[in-house]
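Model it.
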Amino acid sequence: MKTRRIFLQKAGMSALALNLSPFSPLLGANEKLNINAMDEKPLRVAIMGLGSYGSRVARAMKDCKRAKLVGVISGTPSKIEAWQEEYNIPAKNCYNYETYSQIKDNPDIDAVYVITPNGLHKKHAIGVANAGKHVICEKPMAVNASEAKEMVDACKAAGVKLLIGYRMHFEAKTQEVIKMRMNGEFGKILFFQGLSGFIIGDPTQWRLNYELSGGGAMMDIGIYSINGARYMIGEEPIWVTAQETKNNPEKFKEGVDETIQFQMGFPGGAVASCLSTYSMNNLDKFFLNGLNGFAEMQPSTGYGPIEGRTHKGPLNHPHVTHQTTQMDEMAAIILDGKKPLVPVDGEEGLKDMVIIDAIYKAVKEGRKISLV
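Modeled.
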């Protein structure tokens, strides 16, 4: 009897184990054992450029499930030391701008997030690619379309992925509006408005230095309205017009735009009217109008929370730090081949740079510029 009892106990445990497998019908869809989750490899990231935005990304990555900060690249030794202490980064994963090519020999780093000034993106991104590491590059990806194309080609040649830091592509309320448009809930799209602006401070900062920034407000925040128009309308523009206003030429020198109003036309007939400025606050708004409904987001691209509503009511998705979601989603793209709702690859960034080039050309020549 004792032997039989032991046998039945073991048999029962075996049956229980079988029934509680990840594929067991006894477990609900939300209750399946996530055995593989514990074994998922994280994307091991080094951040290049330890300024204010690099710090924001690093803090956000503390809450990531798939991405991990493991290295830094900086030209400031004191910053490296501070980051080593705060984020427990080993010395072997710390580099400067003269030595970062050595990451090719470091198997503990999978990708580098380039968060240096715009004018350095091409050089740094190609350097990372040549070292055999995946590249995540902050937007704008370059200072013009030609440089962006070089970056795309270099990463392809090196066999590494190139992703652009379009955090809004992963933001829940933004995605809800995009899905509504994809499902036809707005009907024929007629109009988009994008307002992007704030009063910029320190006149000596790199964002107001043409050699480092490649422009002014358009490069920094106007790109949000360009990109937003594209993913909310769901088409690529076929023409642009633009007008520049510069009231402070001492602060905004040659090549550094202060305020640009621009318009874009789309093949389905929709028109976008946008404003990009470094001289006005309280401008962070998207409005999409369709034949059957609308979407309004304000703030639309700030660090959050994003606020929005549609003709169906308010968007109530909980706020999650954008950069946390972005880095986890990018880890899935790089490691798992996940396809995002809206692309964040180098080709996506290149499309924005082609449009920015055309906007600057429209300002200079005072005419409509065709994009086809």
